[in-house]
Amino acid sequence: MFHFCFSKCDKGQIIEVICQDCGRRMLPEERIVGGVDARQGSWPWQVSLQYDGVHQCGGSIISDRWIISAAHCFPERYRHVSRWRVLMGTIYNTPISKNVVIAEVKTVVYHSSYLPFVDANIDDNSRDIAVLALTKPLQLTDYIQPVCLPTYGHRLADGQMGTVTGWGNMEYYGYGGPFVASDVLSKTSRYRLLGVVSWGTGCAMAKKPGVYTRVSRFLPWISTAIRVSDAG
């Protein structure tokens, strides 16, 4: 099994190692460019986060029990955890595929220093990151797979291509979703979650870049959030 770790903290200490296959697409690859529909199973870590059955944000599977998304997807009006569901195993944000799984949410942990939740008048989207614990482990399939987390400090190399996935108009439906890029740090090419869609105007518009939370900066926070939640 491939292993990923939540890498190293600032002091160079190993935080945690989890043995788990990740970042592989089990079905034939197909690029999506310019809004072309993806094939079923193309991006098996992509999920739809739904509140009362309505799609609110995207997210990514990072283990059989944890999802990562953006903090801003969980304003106060959406904090009844029992009303959240995670839809996965499909390229549609409605449960119309035979491969779809709908999971219940046990816990939502968003970054405590996401400032708009401290003061709604603050226009600062730094630390726009959250993790969700599922009530029970997922059964991984060709259509449901975790993405690999990056190594600590991992950056996109100059000229390296990355991919953002989501549903429909990325200005809304892509929030919280994955920005991934492949690498060959292991013997086979795997996709790593380099960013979480935070905000932007439209998708791939000239002079209007999308803004992403850099996941590699928050590996210690992710590890702590998971460890504290599991301990509770």
UniProtKB/TrEMBL annotation:
PROSITE patterns linked: TRYPSIN_DOM (PS50240), TRYPSIN_HIS (PS00134)
GO biological process: proteolysis
Record-level Gene Ontology MF annotations: serine-type endopeptidase activity
InterPro entries: Peptidase_S1_PA, Peptidase_S1_PA_chymotrypsin, Peptidase_S1A, Trypsin_dom, TRYPSIN_HIS
Pfam families xrefs: Trypsin
Domain (Peptidase S1) ranges: 32-227
Origin superkingdom: Eukaryota
Keyword annotations: Disulfide bond, Hydrolase, Protease, Serine protease
Protein name: Serine protease hepsin-like
Annotated organism of origin: Sinocyclocheilus grahami
